[in-house]
Design goal:
The chain is an alpha/beta fold. 26% of the residues lie in helices and 28% in strands. The protein folds into two domains: 155 residues, CheA-289, Domain 4 (OB fold (Dihydrolipoamide Acetyltransferase, E2P)), CATH 2.40.50.180; 142 residues, 3-Layer(aba) Sandwich (Rossmann fold). Strands 8-1-2-10-9 form a five-stranded mixed sheet. The chain has a five-stranded mixed sheet with strand order 3-6-7-5-4, with no helix packed on it. A five-stranded parallel sheet has the order 12-11-13-14-15, with helices on both faces. Helix 7 runs parallel beside helix 8. The N and C termini lie far apart (54 Å). The mean pLDDT is 88.
Length: 314
């Protein structure tokens, strides 16, 4: 039975501020760290030796080539190399490929082995300040049952480094606002954003700067909620953007917290996430979100805010 079998529905986990992680290693060395990825961003694990690798000329050095899997050409990224881990020819022969789906972009990550699936509460995910440095590859960590450290990587940074054309086009904004009536509250107010990926933070910062709209970033949902609850009058907030996957508090819990509080119940909320499955969209809408956008299309987030504000009940 595959380690990807028997995973709970994403929406059931989200209601309890939980997630499931696929834990893996990129080397057989005893010193090799454990890494993890949200299981709902994964499709399957295949043996590398069973799939012919077609090399691509003049591509990024971390892009090994492509494999064909069920009729799809899937780019293979050398995750060990990104982490400064060198694999021998024998290691490569024994390695596996983790097939992932980021915003509908299907890629393969070379790994050594998939370990197991674990369930965690988001408050068990921690992001020390040392991870917040520009260019850092680790977003947060947790502990396995035996106390081993397990690192969650910034996979959006990996994609931005290797396949930048697949990421958000920050230059689309403010051109996509030219035919829209921007509410005065948005022009003079400050949009609050909960996002733990430095790569996504940088994209959002550029988008808002290009549009001359103020915004304030928080590294996770709990920091956002704590800040709002200290505000004398939260109703001045024009809109809130939240990711789903964040340490301490998930985006779904952020929506729940905001909607149950009278002073924040009518603030437009936009979910900006790489977890773009229909179940996640339905769950966000069911909890009270006003819009959902995948991170590769974040350049459209301000028009979505404008639309939500203009359609909001007066």
């Amino acid at each position: 039975m595959s380690v990807l079998d028997n995973v709970d529905a994403a929406t059931n986990l989200a209601k309890n501020n939980e997630l499931q992680l696929l834990v893996f290693r990129v080397s057989e060395s005893e010193e090799s760290a454990y890494y993890a990825i949200n299981v709902f961003k994964t499709r399957e694990v295949v043996e590398a030796k069973n799939h012919f690798l077609t090399q691509i000329p003049s591509c990024h050095p971390l892009l090994e080539g492509t494999i064909t899997l069920r009729g799809l050409q899937i780019p293979i990224l050398n995750l060990p190399s990104w982490l400064d881990v060198k694999l021998s020819k024998e290691d490569i022969e024994k390695s596996n490929v983790l097939i992932c789906d980021f915003n509908g972009i299907i890629i393969g990550l070379r790994i050594m082995s998939a370990y197991r699936v674990v369930k965690k509460n988001w408050n068990e995910m921690h992001a020390p300040d040392s991870y917040r440095q520009e260019g850092g590859m680790v977003m947060n960590h947790t502990r396995l049952e035996d106390g081993s450290l397990c690192l969650i990587l910034d996979y959006e940074k990996l994609l931005a480094d290797v396949i930048p054309q697949a990421m958000v086009d920050v230059l689309e904004s403010p051109g996509n606002l030219k035919d829209m009536e921007v509410p005065a509250k948005l022009k003079v107010g400050t949009v609050l954003i909960a996002e733990d990926s430095k790569t996504a933070q940088r994209h959002l910062l550029q988008i808002f700067q290009n549009s001359s709209i103020d915004m304030k970033l928080f590294d996770n949902g709990k920091l956002l909620i704590d800040y709002i609850m200290r505000m004398p009058d939260p109703s001045i907030i024009p809109a809130i953007i939240t990711d789903i996957e964040m340490p301490e508090m998930s985006g779904f819990t952020v929506i729940q917290e905001l909607r149950k509080n009278k002073s924040t119940s009518k603030i437009p909320i936009i979910v900006n996430s790489s977890m773009t499955g229909e179940n996640n969209k339905r769950e966000a809408e069911g909890l009270g979100a006003n819009g959902f956008i995948d991170k590769t299309k974040s350049h459209n987030v301000i028009p979505l805010i404008v639309e939500a504000m203009n359609n909001a009940p007066k």
